[in-house]
Amino acid sequence: MDHRNKITLEKMIGEADFIAVSIKDIDVESFTSDEIIKRAVTMSLINIGELTNALTEEFRTETPNIKWNLLRRTRDKVAHHYIDLDPRITWQTVTESVPELRNQLIELTKS
């Protein structure tokens, strides 16, 4: 793996870690009612999606098990349609999909 891709993956892992720390001691009700945490977490989702663009096309092609296009589409949805986001779906994303993605990214950095 080239240095650029590795650094980008590490930044993505950092965003996933930020999300995990931000929601560590709260439940879905607390999340949906806390505008500061919602905004912070959604900014990290935007950052994860944006960082996929910094990965080389070759790398993304070689790692089809990660849905890179879905990450970019999620970024677009969060960035451009923030007002319409259902906070419960965002909660589901950050509690289920993001931890899974984090684990996949960690595995990639080991190779």
| Secondary-structure element pattern, one letter each | HHHHHH
Q: Which class do the helix and strand fractions yield?
A: mainly alpha
Backbone CA Rg:
14 Å
In total, how many domains does the architecture comprise?
Answer: 1
The poorly predicted ranges are none
Number of strands: 0
Question: Helix count?
Answer: 6
Helical content band: over 70%
User: Biggest sheet, in brief?
Assistant: none
> How far is the N terminus from the C terminus?
7 Å
Instruction: Identify the overall geometry.
Output: globular
Mean pLDDT: 95
**Percentage beta strand:** under 5%
Give structural notes:
The protein is mostly helical. About 80% of the residues lie in helices and about 0% in strands.
List keywords for this structure.
111 residues, mainly alpha
Give a short overview.
With 111 residues, the chain is mainly α. The protein is 79% helix and 0% strand.
SSE inventory with pairings:
Layout: H1 3-23, H2 28-33, H3 35-52, H4 57-62, H5 68-80, H6 87-110
Helix pairs in contact: 1-3, 1-6, 3-5
